């Protein structure tokens, strides 16, 4: 299986025409094509990409709200 990654621009009419040159290792004949589209994320500054910006994000989640941290950790370990 070959993977080809290509950045494209989506036009206002939402039509996308691809012109992809395949490697010589790709045999001639039928092939399965898998197309995965996702919005291109903006490049964040290094400080925003660090783990520290995630601190405190879970404190208001259903799982962690009003939970005893020791009991929660024990329950998570027991699942393994």
Which tags fit this structure?
about 20% helix, about 80 residues, 2 helices, mainly alpha
Query: Percent helix among the residues?
Result: 10-25%
Mean pLDDT, to the nearest integer, reads: 81
Query: How would you classify the quaternary structure?
Result: single chain
Order of helices and strands: HH
Architecture overview:
The chain is mostly helical and 80 residues long. The protein has a domain at 46-79. The protein is built from 2 helices and no strands. The longest helix is centred in the last third of the chain and has 11 residues, at 69-79.
A few lines on this structure:
Helices cover 19% and strands 0% of the residues. It contains two helices and no strands.
Secondary-structure map with pairings?
Layout: H1 46-49, H2 69-79
């Amino acid at each position: 299986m070959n993977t080809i990654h290509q950045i494209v621009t989506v036009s206002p009419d939402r039509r996308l025409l691809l012109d992809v040159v395949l490697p010589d290792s790709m045999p001639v004949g039928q092939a399965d094509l898998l197309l995965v589209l996702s919005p291109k994320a903006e490049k964040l500054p290094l400080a925003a990409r660090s783990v520290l910006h995630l601190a405190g994000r879970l404190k208001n989640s259903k799982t962690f709200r009003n939970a005893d941290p020791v009991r929660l950790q024990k329950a998570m370990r027991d699942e393994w």
